[in-house]
Design brief:
Number of helices: 3
Shape: rod-shaped
Order of helices and strands: HHH
Mean pLDDT: 77
Strand content: under 5%
Distance between the termini: 196 Å
Low-confidence stretches: 1-10, 28-36
Helix content: over 70%
Number of strands: 0
Length: about 170
């Protein structure tokens, strides 16, 4: 029985060797060295099994996830920087608005004083005009009177003066 087992192991080794030699010839000398564990590892093809392929894929997925998390962190940092910058600009604008509001309040106060002074002056002038109108009589020209009344003649009133008897 041991004889058969030895022949099986020898056959397997011989088959592997022949297969490796054939691959080495197909891939060139670099491939033969890599297949047998020698060489620099820069030339030729590498053979991996399903387990190793799964590990490589899992590692690639984790690398991608790490890259995404780093990108998210970078994006968050940039958003915070932009927010801080905008807050600074808003504070500057709020200061300008406050200053403009104070200046406008002063202008409004000056305008109110000016308006009050002018209103009082106009009322005084209106009263003076009313007094002047009260001192004079309104004369209507004859042409402005309805036709049909005839000519109007105005004669000044004469006053008679009497001298005292002596």
């Amino acid at each position: 029985m041991g004889e058969f087992a030895s022949k099986g192991v020898a056959g397997a080794a011989l088959g592997t060797g022949i297969g490796g030699l054939a691959l080495g010839v197909l891939n060139g000398a670099g491939g033969l060295l890599n297949l047998m564990g020698g060489g620099s590892g820069s030339a030729g093809s590498a053979m991996v099994n399903r387990y190793e392929l799964g590990l490589v894929q899992e590692l690639a997925a984790k690398d991608a996830k790490i890259g995404l998390l780093e990108a998210d962190k970078y994006t968050d940092e940039k958003i915070v920087e932009a927010y801080k910058d905008l807050q600074g600009q808003i504070k500057e604008l709020a200061g300008e608005v406050r200053a403009n509001k104070d200046a406008q309040g002063q202008i409004n106060m000056q305008q109110a004083v000016y308006n009050g002074t002018n209103t009082a002056t106009l009322q005084c002038m209106q009263q003076q005009v009313a007094q002047l109108l009260g001192l004079t009589k309104l004369v209507v020209p004859n042409a402005s009177v309805c036709p049909g009344w005839g000519n109007v003649t105005i004669t000044p009133a004469t006053t008679t003066t009497t001298t005292p008897a002596a």
